[in-house]
Fold:
Amino acid sequence: MNVIISILGGIAPTFPSVATERAKPPYILYTESESPIRTFDGIAGMEITLEITVVERSKAAAQKLKSIIISRLDGNTFRNRTLYYDNARYVDYPDEGLSSYEVVFKIES
Structure:
């Protein structure tokens, strides 16, 4: 995970889950979660999800950051684990003047 955080930090300031109060766009937030893969024979492994949120002042700028992150992470292997782009969702915060994309990667374990 440290390698991935380092890559994200090279794109924009990066924070786990929540940005600091003084953070100014652009910035990146990330969370990681694990859930068991259940089969009739029991647990077959773990599904790891990495959610990355890019925050910018405009939709176009957020979309550009989203594209950079996908191009740098999708299909790459880190510590014998491959990241696969799963989906992205646009979220607008008009009251704050912010735009973001929530980008989801699945990690092969």
Q: What stands out?
A: The longest helix spans residues 59-73. The beta strands are 14-16, 27-39, 42-56, 77-78, 81-93, 98-107. The two ends are 13 Å apart (CA to CA).
